[in-house]
């Protein structure tokens, strides 16, 4: 049955269409906004795997280049491995939906979202989330949704719902919020030092729009939905649960006295393995699950009832912080940030404009001059693992840190460098992405990048049972695993720059979100104090190993003179100075870079000499480049040639130019005139008195 419906979000209309495309999928919905179209499908297998008590859920978001009227680059001329944006939006769809699929539904489930058309103005991220939710809602797959998702911008102190791509250039905020009609399930955003109260107001506005999207999808489901399939959930016999729980009672107390993560994890595993050994092999899976659930319950009860955490801290206590800068001799800046058992080593590399990353996107080509790359190394958690390329999580954490730092980076006019930051996680016990933000901020200060201020970040956790809840400042890995929320907040003393919320529950209220932002601000200020004590401001000079780069504004009509005939002049400058030279024809900008300051200065002097206007009356030491029947072409330097007419060579009559001048001769000349086309007339005789002028 085909169905088309429309819902208004902000000032835009979203058109949902079901029952026409991809009809063999369990559920499929096409969502259109303007000229942007996203098709999402939901499928789930018919076979239930054994001993799998979590949602085997995957999301693949793919952009078809034909959607923007483009042909892919490369040799094969077809879409290949997922781009960075495709990975990020796949995660964006996954994060708010995953907690709404029942834990005991273990059938393999896949969402595929395809971008079929892109109008360059209405972006696809929120459309993809809404389309995926609608496809799941119409399918027979168990889903505690639907959800809605909107983007919020802040332009001239006014909130804009689902801003256009062009509007985001002037926005202080780009935040995506997703949730059900009752709760927020995901937040992702970057912002330019926005106050916590403004962020809370943006979430509140988002929630109102989300409620309308959810109501629309519920109506859509009532009209054309399939109804949920029946499945057999995992059942744990009550007798077995009581028996196993009784055996591990009291063991949690010792577990909570072990300070180190590795030792605590090993003891926890020993509890599980020892308990399993008392039962036949066919019951090991259930016994292990019961033991794990019991230990989780004990940890949560202790937090809720006693306000004590598994590592002994009180609820709002941050782990010990250690900051160190200048830890590596050759990188252009470096730092170590340690918070408890989480350690990030960050190194800075400065490069020229040629080092910018080219992004071939549907909305057009872009170049990125600031990059943060995050590496989660297996030894950081004491594991052995194949080391291949970065995974989705690593890319997501790197982009979160990059967005959190983006607004303190100086503009290209002030600092014409490409900046690459690499965070290697050497130890991990929670919040490694926020440790990356702190380490990168320290390393940039160490490198001498003139950043506006330090940026710090931390993660706030939550344990909630009914109306009783506790917020946990600076969560560790066990609290992330056993808790209900991971709310990352980064920013400066002035406001928030990056935010990311993931939750496992379906009743996270706006009031709790407001409280989290206040708690996060207190923690952020405490961490900033430690960072500022280590290095309060950027160093005055760059590393001796960093390239030197300067930027020169020049009249656009002078660019041809710098380049010269067939590039001859610019090649000569590069050859003589060993500098790299980039010319932006449209902006009228020349960027000079080299490994040392002297080379840059020499290239700058040569270029400034070329663009300097030649003025009548100036005297130059020139070189004869060419002999003509009526005179000689003399190069006066700076890439400029002038005509020395035969009548201007001497005071007497010269029969042949060759009688006095030869190619390669050095000759002093005076500028006689410069015409409107820039042609230069020179005179030699103007510098020779008649008394000393004899026939040569």
Overall form:
elongated
State the strand order across the main sheet: 8-7-9-10-21-20-18-19
Q: Architecture of the largest domain, CATH level 2?
A: 2-Layer Sandwich
Largest sheet: 8 strands, antiparallel
Derived from helix and strand composition plus strand pairing, the structural class reads alpha+beta
**CATH superfamily (homologous) name of the largest domain:** GHMP Kinase, N-terminal domain
Low-confidence stretches: none
Look at the structure and give the mean pLDDT. Answer: 92
How many E-type strands?
29
Q: Gyration radius, to the nearest Å?
A: 33 Å
Number of helices: 14
Strand content: 25-35%
- The CATH topology label of the largest domain is Ribosomal Protein S5, domain 2
Number of domains: 5
Q: Helix amount, in percent?
A: 25-40%
Describe this structure in words.
The protein has 696 residues and is α+β, with helices and mostly antiparallel strands. The protein has an eight-stranded antiparallel sheet, sandwiched between helices. The protein has a six-stranded mixed sheet with strand order 1-2-3-4-6-5. It has a five-stranded mixed sheet with strand order 11-12-13-17-16. The longest helix has 29 residues, at 196-224.
Write the layout of secondary structure elements.
Blueprint lengths: L2 E7 L2 E7 L8 E7 L2 E9 L12 E7 L20 H14 L11 E9 L7 H14 L9 E8 L2 E4 L11 E7 L4 E11 L1 H29 L13 H11 L2 H5 L5 H16 L7 H23 L14 E5 L7 E7 L2 E10 L5 E5 L2 E5 L1 E7 L15 H14 L12 E10 L4 H16 L8 E10 L2 E6 L3 H6 L2 E7 L4 E8 L6 H25 L13 E6 L5 H5 L4 H10 L2 E5 L4 E6 L2 H15 L7 E10 L2 E5 L5 E5 L20 E9 L5 E4 L13
Parallel strand pairs: 5-6, 16-17, 27-29
Antiparallel strand pairs: 1-2, 2-3, 3-4, 4-6, 7-8, 7-9, 9-10, 10-21, 11-12, 12-13, 13-17, 14-15, 18-19, 18-20, 20-21, 22-24, 23-24, 25-26, 25-28, 26-27, 28-29
Helix pairs in contact: 1-2, 2-3, 3-11, 4-7, 6-7, 8-9, 13-14
């Amino acid at each position: 049955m085909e169905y088309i419906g429309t819902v208004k979000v902000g000032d835009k209309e979203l058109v949902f269409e079901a029952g026409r495309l991809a009809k063999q999928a369990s559920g499929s919905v096409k969502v259109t906004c303007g000229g942007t179209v996203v098709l999402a499908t939901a499928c789930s297998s018919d076979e239930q795997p054994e001993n799998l008590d979590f949602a085997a859920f995957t999301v693949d978001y793919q952009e078809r280049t034909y959607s923007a009227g483009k042909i892919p680059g490369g040799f094969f001329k077809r879409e290949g491995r997922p781009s960075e944006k495709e990975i990020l939006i796949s995660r964006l769809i996954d994060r708010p939906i995953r907690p709404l699929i029942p834990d005991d539904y273990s059938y393999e489930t896949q969402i595929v979202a395809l971008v079929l058309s892109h109008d360059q103005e209405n972006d696809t991220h929120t459309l993809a989330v809404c389309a995926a939710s609608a496809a799941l809602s119409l399918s027979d797959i168990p889903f505690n949704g639907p959800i809605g998702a909107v983007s919020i911008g802040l332009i001239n102190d006014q909130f804009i719902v689902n801003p256009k791509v062009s509007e985001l250039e002037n926005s202080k905020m780009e935040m995506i919020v997703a949730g059900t009609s009752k709760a927020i399930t995901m937040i992702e955003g970057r912002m330019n030092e926005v106050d916590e109260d403004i962020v809370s107001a943006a979430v509140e506005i988002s929630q109102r729009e989300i409620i309308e999207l959810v109501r629309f999808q519920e109506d859509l489901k009532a009209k054309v939905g399939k109804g949920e399939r029946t499945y057999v959930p995992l059942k744990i016999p009550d007798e077995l649960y009581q028996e196993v729980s009784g055996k591990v009672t009291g063991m949690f107390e010792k577990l909570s006295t072990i300070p180190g993560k590795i030792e605590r994890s090993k003891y926890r595993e020993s509890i599980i393995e020892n308990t399993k050994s008392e039962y036949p092999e066919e019951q090991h899976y259930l016994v292990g699950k019961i033991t794990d659930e019991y230990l989780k319950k004990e940890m949560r009860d202790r937090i809720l009832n006693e306000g004590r955490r598994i590592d002994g801290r009180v609820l709002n206590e941050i782990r010990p912080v250690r900051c160190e800068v200048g830890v590596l001799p050759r990188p252009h800046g470096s730092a170590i940030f340690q918070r408890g058992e989480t350690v990030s080593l960050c190194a800075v590399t400065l490069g020229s404009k040629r080092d910018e990353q080219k992004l071939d996107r549907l909305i057009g080509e872009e170049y990125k001059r600031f990059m943060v790359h995050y590496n989660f190394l297996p030894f950081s958690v004491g594991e052995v693992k194949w080391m291949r390329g970065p995974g989705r999580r690593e890319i997501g954490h790197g982009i979160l840190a990059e967005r959190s730092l983006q607004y303190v980076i100086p503009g290209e006019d002030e600092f014409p460098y490409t900046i690459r930051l690499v965070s290697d996680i050497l130890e991990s016990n929670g919040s490694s992405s926020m440790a990356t933000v702190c380490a990168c901020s320290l390393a940039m200060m160490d490198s001498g990048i003139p950043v506006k201020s330090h940026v710090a970040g931390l993660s706030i956790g939550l344990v909630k049972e009914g109306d009783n809840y506790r917020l946990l400042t600076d969560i560790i890995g066990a609290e992330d695993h056993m808790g209900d929320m991971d709310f990352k907040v980064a920013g400066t003393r002035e406001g928030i720059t990056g935010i990311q919320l993931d939750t496992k529950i379906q009743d996270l209220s706006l009031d709790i979100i407001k409280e989290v932002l206040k708690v996060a601000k207190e923690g952020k200020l405490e961490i900033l104090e430690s960072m500022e004590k280590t290095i309060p401001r950027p160093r005055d000079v760059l590393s001796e190993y960093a390239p030197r780069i300067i930027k020169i504004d020049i009249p656009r009509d002078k660019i041809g003179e710098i380049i010269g005939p067939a590039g001859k002049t610019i090649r000569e400058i590069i050859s003589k100075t060993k500098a790299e030279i980039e010319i932006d024809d449209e902006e009228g900008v020349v960027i000079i870079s080299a490994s040392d300051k002297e080379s840059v200065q020499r290239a700058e002097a040569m270029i400034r000499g070329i663009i300097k206007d030649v003025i009548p009356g100036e005297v130059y030491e020139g070189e004869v480049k060419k002999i003509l029947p009526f005179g000689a072409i003399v190069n006066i330097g700076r890439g400029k040639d002038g005509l020395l007419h035969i009548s201007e060579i001497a005071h007497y009559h010269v029969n042949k130019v060759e009688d006095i001048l030869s190619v390669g001769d050095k000759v002093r000349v005076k500028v006689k005139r410069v015409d409107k086309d820039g042609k230069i007339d020179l005179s030699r005789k103007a510098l020779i008195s008649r008394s000393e002028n004899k026939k040569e």
